[in-house]
Design a protein that fits this description.
Elements lengths: L5 H9 L6 H6 L6 E6 L5 H12 L3 E4 L11 H15 L3 E5 L2 H6 L9 H15 L4 E7 L7 H4 L6 E5 L4 H15 L9 H7 L5 H17 L3
Helix pairs in contact: 4-6, 8-9, 8-10
């Protein structure tokens, strides 16, 4: 379901057995997580879901906005509860979508420092956790993310999801055409489509396919 990004796929493949008993016996530490940064619509959220699917692990989605409560101390309590739930379900993948928006709110003191304390608790857990909870975080704007979270130790690796190249656009077109027109994909000029869609994101390419289907449907062909 993800066209291109061969480095990312190779990284996942190398760690496919990382949570197995054989890996534990070998003495390998658990992978901690990935930070996926890049342009909107390039497949970061899909990539986070693919990690869980490729490794056959349950996927949990963390919504930072729902951690914050109106009562004093409630937010910090919810973070601790979230950590307990994730570790109880381990091994699992914890998907943190748009983590940059959570850090953007930490720079203001309008909430009495609650956001800063919540993120501090979360970051401490990221650094010190020994449980097999793999954190896959996505971000659109890396400028909002503090430098301490980017260092090795909290996340194993950081991948930048750029706009796809011509070859990657070809792969993306094939993914969506196989999804919507699996029986006659050979009738499409995929290399031509990839060349014409320069600087299109993966999400925009999917919309191109759907829009073409709408035109074909209305025209009765």
């Amino acid at each position: 379901d993800l066209g291109g990004f061969d480095n990312f796929k190779d990284w996942l493949s190398l760690r496919k057995q990382a949570f197995s008993q054989e890996a534990i016996n070998y003495g390998l530490p658990y992978p901690k997580g990935l930070l996926l940064v890049g342009v909107q619509g390039t497949g970061k959220s899909i990539a986070a879901k693919i990690i869980a699917n490729e490794w056959d692990l349950p996927l949990l989605r963390l919504d930072f906005g729902r951690l914050f409560g109106s009562l004093v101390g409630q937010s910090e309590q919810r973070v601790r509860k979230m950590i307990q739930v994730a570790e109880a379900l381990a091994p699992c993948v914890l998907w943190v979508d748009e983590i940059d928006k959570a850090f953007a709110g930490a720079n203001s003191n309008s909430d009495g420092g609650t956001t800063s304390r919540v993120l501090s608790t979360f970051l401490t857990w990221l650094s010190e956790k020994t449980s097999p909870v793999f954190v896959a975080a996505t971000a659109n704007n890396i400028e909002y993310i503090p430098s301490e979270i980017l260092r090795k130790g909290r996340f194993d690796e950081m991948f930048f999801f750029n706009l796809p190249t011509t070859e990657e656009r070809k792969d993306i077109f094939e993914v969506h055409l196989k999804k919507y027109r699996p029986d006659n994909i050979d009738t499409f000029q995929v290399p031509v489509l990839a060349k014409l869609s320069k600087e299109f994101s993966g999400a925009e390419i999917e919309q191109v396919v759907i829009e073409a289907m709408r035109l074909g449907f209305i025209e009765g062909r």
